[in-house]
Amino acid sequence: MEGRVHEESLSWWTSYGSLTPTLQALAYKLLSQPTSSSCCERNWSSFSAIQSLKRNKLTSSRTEDLIYVHTNLRMLARKKEEYKVEMYFLWMMTMLMTRRLKVCFSMMKKSK
Description:
Protein name: HAT C-terminal dimerisation domain-containing protein
Structural class: mainly alpha
Pfam family, one: Dimer_Tnp_hAT
Largest sheet: none
GO molecular function: protein dimerization activity
Organism: Glycine soja (Wild soybean)
Number of domains: 2
Number of strands: 0
Radius of gyration: 22 Å
Distance between the termini: 61 Å
Domain HAT C-terminal dimerisation: 7-73
């Protein structure tokens, strides 16, 4: 057990993780991933596009729903060939669709 202080994590799992093969496989997958903050920054960018100083009265659940829709629209757009050709145009369309969804959500809220 003293090896876990002086040894790299991945080599420790190689040496001592054979008793728990499922956990060892999971540790290999997790420890082999490079660390990066780009996913967090992308998420913060989406949040700042949806909830700004002018639009700060959205509830947290509504904001999360809009982020979910926004992210899925972006993923769907990336599968299309047009996205590769006109990436900026599709990004703007996604933003427009997100804003339209926000308007629809606010209209639904007012009607309740």
